[in-house]
Design a protein that fits this description.
This protein has about 190 residues and is α+β, with helices and mostly antiparallel strands. The chain is about 30% helix and about 30% strand. It has four helices and six strands, in the order E-H-E-E-H-E-E-E-H-H. The strands form two sheets. A four-stranded antiparallel β-sheet has the order 1-6-5-4. The longest helix is centred in the last third of the chain and has 22 residues.
Length: about 190
């Protein structure tokens, strides 16, 4: 779902450009230019596909959240859970193991009121405790939904990963290991 939570927002009016100052128009154009870029290879990961199928290309949740903070500002966006449903919860009584599946709808809202919603899914299989299985699947579902909602804002926030020709090329690029200088660390350095 896509939308705007402010019913009187001039951006929803086809002639909205007449309402914008030059400064606002430049800010919107700059933001759009950022969002139109594609993810660099350092943001992209791969894992084996289901049943040993072809590799799946994805971006880790923390990387997309950090990127959203960089693009919109740490206080320029927020996310909220619209709905969360436990789709199944099974227990193998013999092995005392739990399987849980959760679906979740998350809304990501920018400070200007524009929002996108999307669904995410999380599953925990063969987990020792019921609480751990529920916890893992809920967190996974929320992270997946946040990533999917953010991708609706542009290619930079993950939508480029749906372009198979792009992912085939970008995954060929080797990323050197990250070297973090000590000055960038927060906290005590114990030697």
């Amino acid at each position: 779902m896509h939308g705007n939570s402010r019913s009187s927002n001039p951006v929803s009016d086809p002639s909205f450009s007449t309402y914008l100052s030059d400064d606002t128009a430049i800010k919107i154009a700059t933001l759009q230019a950022k969002l139109n870029k594609k993810l660099g290879p350092e943001y992209i990961s791969q894992r084996p596909g289901p049943g040993g199928g072809p590799k799946l290309t994805y971006a880790e949740g923390w990387k997309i959240i950090n990127l959203a903070n960089e693009v919109f500002g740490f206080n320029g966006w927020s996310s909220s859970i619209v709905n969360m449903t436990i789709d199944y919860m099974d227990c193998n009584e013999e092995a005392k193991r739990y399987n849980v599946g959760v679906s979740c709808i998350v809304r990501v809202t920018l400070s200007c009121g524009v929002f996108h919603e999307d669904v995410g899914y999380g599953a925990a299989e063969n987990v020792k405790s019921k609480a751990q299985a529920i916890d893992k699947s809920k967190k996974e579902a929320v992270t997946d939904a946040v990533k999917r909602a953010l991708r609706n804002f542009g290619t930079l926030l993950g939508n480029c990963l749906y372009d198979k020709s792009y992912t085939q090329e970008i995954t060929k690029i080797k990323v050197p290991p990250v070297r973090i200088p000590h000055s960038a660390w927060h906290g005590l350095l114990l030697i």
